Amino acid sequence: MRLLVLLAAALLVTVFQAQAQVYVPYDGNDEFDGYSYDDPYLSPDYYEPAPRYQAPLQERRQPSLRSARGTIVIATREHMLIYTTQWGEQFAYPIAVGREGKQWYGTTRVVSKRLHPEWRPTASMRQKNPRLPAVVKPGPANPLGTRAIYLADGLLRIHGTNDPSSIGTNASSGCFRMYREDVEELYEMVQPGTRVIVRR
């Protein structure tokens, strides 16, 4: 009986602690004012390290298109990001892209990179969802993951995610999400000035 009471108490503490750390998923990002950040899906496992996620083998396809050396090509229909190094070696990664009406196409470039970025909801996001914090510090709850690569237009970025199940779907507000291991690898190879082509 004593063991049962202890287990029930531990379960209640865990439930209340988890509820105190979870933000409700927000699906109302209708405009880009300033920097646009992806929907704040915050992992309920805030205090537990995110498990190392291995992309399924079928998602590690060979690149289906050619591109100039030192260029990132994002094929939105295929949910693929292909980086061709200066030496001609290609790396293909599965990604999540913007939802319908949130996609952008064109040519831009990498302007900066951030290790363990903070996530700052825009004023309009916080107006629509007052429960959002002003800043989400680096950690398992951060929707940008462990790395962010910022693009020249100021609206988009290539970044990690705390929701790996979204990879391969149209899930973001325009940004390009990658598995943690993939964005960490790309982050090391890509430098500011790298050309980025976003195709349908």
For the report, how would you describe the main beta sheet?
8 strands, mixed, barrel
Strand elements, count = 9
Low-confidence runs of at least 5 consecutive residues: 13-59
- Could you tell me the radius of gyration in angstroms? 18 Å
What string gives the helices and strands in order?
HEEEEHEEEEHE
Subunit arrangement of the protein:
single chain
The side-by-side strand order for the widest beta sheet comes to 1-2-3-8-6-5-4-9
Average predicted confidence as pLDDT = 77
Helix content: 10-25%
Structural class label: alpha/beta
Kindly estimate the percentage of residues that lie in beta strands according to DSSP. 15-25%
What's the N-to-C terminus distance? 62 Å
Morphology: globular
Query: Helical region count?
Result: 3
Provide a quick synopsis of the model.
The protein has helices at 2-21, 123-128, 180-189, and strands at residues 71-75, 80-84, 90-98, 106-115, 147-151, 157-159, 170-172, 176-178, 195-199. By secondary structure, the protein is an alpha/beta fold.
Describe this protein's structure.
The chain has 200 residues and is α/β, with parallel strands linked by helices. Helix content is 18%, strand content 24%. The chain contains three helices and nine strands; from the N terminus they run αββββαββββαβ. It has helices at 2-21, 123-128, 180-189, and strands at residues 71-75, 80-84, 90-98, 106-115, 147-151, 157-159, 170-172, 176-178, 195-199. Strands 1-2-3-8-6-5-4-9 form an eight-stranded mixed barrel. Strand 2 (80-84) and strand 3 (90-98) form a beta hairpin. It starts with a helix and ends with a strand. Mean pLDDT is 77; it is low at 13-59.
